[in-house]
Amino acid sequence: MESVEDVIKRLADWIEPLAEVERVPVLESVGRVLAAPLAAPRDVPIAPLSLFDGYTVAGPLVAGESLPVVGKQFAGDPPATLAPGTAMRIFTGALLPEGADTVIAQESVELDAQRGHWQEDLSIGAGVRAAGADTREGQVLLETGTRISVAQMGLIASTGEATVAVRRRVRVALLTTGDELLAPGDPFAPGKIYDANGPMLEALLRAAGVEIVQRACLPDDREVIDAQLREAARADLIVTSGGVSVGEADLVRAGVEALGRIDHWRIFLKPGKPLAIGEVLGTPFLGLPGNPVSTFVTYLRFVRLAIDRLAGEAEPGAWPTQWLPLAAARQGGDRPEYIRVRRIAGEGRLMLEPYPDQNSGLLSSLAWADGLALIPPDARLAAGDPVEYTAFKEIGL
After folding, report:
1. What is the pLDDT of residues 118-155, one digit of tens each?
2. Structural domain boundaries in the chain
3. CA angle 169, 170, 173 (to 5 degrees)
4. Does domain 49-129 have CATH number 2.170.190.11?
5. How confident is the model at residue 235 (pLDDT cuts 50, 70, 90)?
């Protein structure tokens, strides 16, 4: 069986980033991947600003001094000039007047007959946000391959840029298969089940920022499946759930092999051992197992990597981990296993509580959990032993 690391390396070597680049408004850039380094076009702030409401002077200040207060400087006002030997009222975010270099907070000043008195020493530059304190002109703010966060979008906006160059969105075709599947809301019928993998995968793909260009739940009909696969080949990536094993009704495998190729790997992993990787008319194809937890885990480990590679991310398929202790003893099996866990307070520290039933068909276990813990094969772990843990929120879920 292929190890998780070997499959990740194969995907990374095989899938190349998309070449197309587009410019989008900064406000629409969150979740997009930068196509080129982003440098600051100007200093931010462009000139010294007051950090708070107070009084601005030419420093330093010596406790016990006082100066007449002449004029006011509001945020947005053009720069004024501070007369020697005077102070000026100033407000948060206002430009410092010419000749001023220090701001003292209003609560530290007593005003008497338009004369300010202070009882503390202040060095030059106190209370001032210096020019270029946030960014300097020409400074590289974000590197190529960065997936832009809300905070990073705010940073870009602060420089005055209206648009940003990003890779175009990855286009994905998502197909689920099975005569037994019903869409949520359909009347129930004996022998049927409601399709959970399709909606779950659709939500995961949207969270990854892709454009879903085709979404279908297919019957076990070879002609229909082949036609949908031909249409799906116009996408950048094809993702399916079910139909890639070796049963008589597993027709996706036959359709993919007729239109391209398929590598049916047995992954050294639980849940998620069966995984089909190949191509349809030149388009990368990933066929996920049918059990919902297996679908979820293989999406996180392999599909997300493929999407990140296509999108040009600098760190595709990032999988942040931390070591936390188990709340109960655990016996490892014949393969590495991602078990569903959640953090609880125990013995004065955070611990990982496993879901009681780790069957890969139980979506309730995923809804209960807040992350996955990796149990090595043949491990004999006692309560309190540390294991690798990945929180769902750390991977954008």
Report:
1. 888 889 999 999 999 999 999 999 999 999 999 999 99
2. 4-16+169-311, 21-44+134-167, 49-129, 322-395
3. 130
4. yes
5. very high
